[in-house]
């Protein structure tokens, strides 16, 4: 059996990933799964924070492919996502392994009985398909949905109808991949960035051009106007000028700092 040279580092991968999980994975899902495995198990960690930009860099996949791949891995219960932080934290889900080393769940053996089961009659009348109505109502929405809808309508007044089931579904799917905080920050950045105003003003306040597209949300999260800084950029600005941290204010529910307006006007005049 060939052996790796002593100086070569490696990550041990269990056989069941190849024997039992490989068949059900798409190429994109496999790349993402291996990266998550490397960043967690490979570094002896239970979970790790991984950004979309890291996933793009390490896998070579597009953001839309990564979005679909993550959704598939979560659906197959191979990966868990903790969205309580600003950057998603991923965990590889180790399947239950029996003594033989197989991760497959053996079917439970049920003894046959001579007693015939009693068939229960269904007393509820089934509503014919043609008479069924969509019962989605804004009164049934979760707190997270309401928070996102209200924030969107605060930034872009009266452009998102909470009684529109298709829009609600789009937001629910977005919340499967982003936190409320991330979506609100993406909405805010979208409203402040000149990209849409200069290039695509017709898409700026359209929910249908935002919520159904994870890659758009991820892009908007990274947008910043000229006067916006992340923490490290703000520190660099302070150390390279006559500014202090008191000249900046942090935007609510975000990791972004802006120059205070009064101080900014003084700097422009000078």
From TrEMBL:
Region described as Disordered: spans on this chain: 108-138
Domain of life assignment: Bacteria
Regions crossing the membrane: none
Signal peptide, first to last residue: none
Residue stretches making up the Bacteriophage lambda Replication protein O N-terminal domain: 10-85
Coiled-coil portions: none
Extent of Polar residues compositional bias: 111-125
Swiss-Prot/TrEMBL GO biological process terms: DNA replication
The protein, known as: Replication protein
Organism in which the protein naturally occurs: Fodinibius halophilus
